[in-house]
Amino acid sequence: MKKKKYFILISILIIAMGLGACDSDSGEMVEVENYTPVETCTTQSNTIDNKVTFSGKILANEEIFVIPKAAGIVTSVNFKLGDRVNKGDILFTLEKGDISNSLAQASNGISLAQKGVSQAKNGLESAKINYELNKEKIENAILNYERTKELYEQGAVSKSQLEQAQIGANEKNLDALMASVTQAEIAYQQSLNQLSQAQISYDQAASGLDNTSVEAPMTGIISALNVKEGQIAGNGQQAATIVDVSGVYIQLSVVESVVNDIVEGDEIRLEIPSASPDEIISTVTYVSPSADPMTKLYTIKSYIDNPDAKIRPGMSAKATISLEKAENAVVIPSNTIINKDNKKYVYVVEDDIAVEKQVETGIDTGEFVQIISGLKFDEKIITEGQFYVSDGSKVKVLVRGE
Asked: I need a surface site. Which of 60, 94, 145, 190 has the fewest CB within 10 A?
């Protein structure tokens, strides 16, 4: 504002001087040259970058809740909050007493079932052997009966001999032997089922015993620990939380007018003061295809390597993304542009004369603007005083401090 007042004052003085001045010796009016004071800058090849900055939170790549598979009294806790653990490390243990007893009982059950299977198998084998032995005898008795019957009909044998032959030729005896085999097979199958059930009971007890040692499901940092020695841990209770901080990501929420200008692979500059004084360079790794139904904003993510674990989930961060960028462009201050009749103009100085030039602009950051056409490099653009000149006006370029 002071600069504008300065130029207004100078212009008024110059105009007044241009009206004339008195020569001190002759008393005659002497004509003084009329010009407008201006300041200029020279157009150069620059890079213009239209950036937008967002605030976001750092999140862990992966976070797992640890829930015991068995309920019991906690007997030991091997790590504390904030400790680093490796996959398979035992986080805490539960009391084994009742489960150990169940395992012993299940083991005895298997032994008994195995004996039952052995006995049933022997019974089945005996029934089969007995069937085969007696089958041949009965079949021979039937043949003998048929022959005796023929002889009886011929009068060669007595009726008592026929009746005696008939007794051993009864097929029902063979059916009874087959029924014994069938019963033995059923008993054997039942014993196998009992052994299978005993094995399942044993496996369940063994699994329960294994579940008394609660292991870390992945390598990471313990971010929450909700168990203490002596307390009861339930199999539906969240006992601990482990986060993987070897890699983290920043999550941003952007409006619809911006989201289409951001694509995966775009460079993103991060400022995380709590973790590093230096700017962190990353890339956009995810752009949500749809808006959050509640906020109507789109999610942007950028994954960051974090080998020293200095960047922690929950930290605040600023992310700067270039929406547009042009290199080797003619770039001038935005306030040098004059809008007139829906067209854009600037004034350049040529031989102390203000020359009006129509321009086409591109990227505008608010402070600087890209000139697509109408200007070339190494031209002197009027940056101060452009609103007080017209095409062809005489100007004088002032140097700051004059």
From this structure: 190
Query: What integer is the mean pLDDT of 331-350?
Result: 92
Secondary structure in 3-state letters for the chain: CHHHHHHHHHHHHHHHHHHCEECCCCCCEECCCCCEEEEEEECEEEEEEEEEEEEEEEEEEEEEEECCCCCEEEEEECCCCCCEECCCCEEEEECCHHHHHHHHHHHHHHHHHHHHHHHHHHHHHHHHHHHHHHHHHHHHHHHHHHHHHHHHHCCCCCHHHHHHHHHHCCCHHHHHHHHHHHHHHHHHHHHHHHHHHHHHHHHHHHHHHHCCEEECCCCEEEEEECCCCCCEECCCCCCEEEEEEEEEEEEEEECHHHHCCCCCCCEEEEECCCCCCCCEEEECCEECCCCCCCCCCEEEEEEEECCCCCCCCCCEEEEEEEEEEEEEEEEEEHHHCEEECCEEEEEEEECCEEEEEEEEEEEECCCEEEEEECCCCCCEEEEECHHHCCCCCEEEECCCCC
pTM of full prediction above 0.70: no
Which residue type does 115 have?
K
Which residues lie below 8 Å from residue 238, measured CB to CB, with a gap of 6+? 65, 66, 67, 224, 226
Pick the CATH number of 98-210 from 3.40.50.261, 1.10.287.1700, 3.30.420.40, 1.25.40.80: 1.10.287.1700
Q: How does strand 36-42 pair with strand 395-397?
A: parallel
**Percentage of the chain lying above the pLDDT 90 cut:** 31
68-95+212-233: CATH topology is OB fold (Dihydrolipoamide Acetyltransferase, E2P) (2.40.50)
Report the percentage of the chain scoring pLDDT > 70. 82
Q: What is the Cα–Cα distance from 306 to 59, expressed in whole angstroms?
A: 12
Q: SS3 sequence, 305-342?
A: ECCCCCCCCCCEEEEEEEEEEEEEEEEEEHHHCEEECC
226 vs 132 pLDDT, higher one: 226
Length of the chain: 402
> Any idea where the domains of the chain sit in the sequence?
1-34, 68-95+212-233, 98-210
More confident residue, 69 or 161: 69
Would you place residue 11 in the very low, low, confident or very high pLDDT band (cuts 50, 70, 90)?
A: low
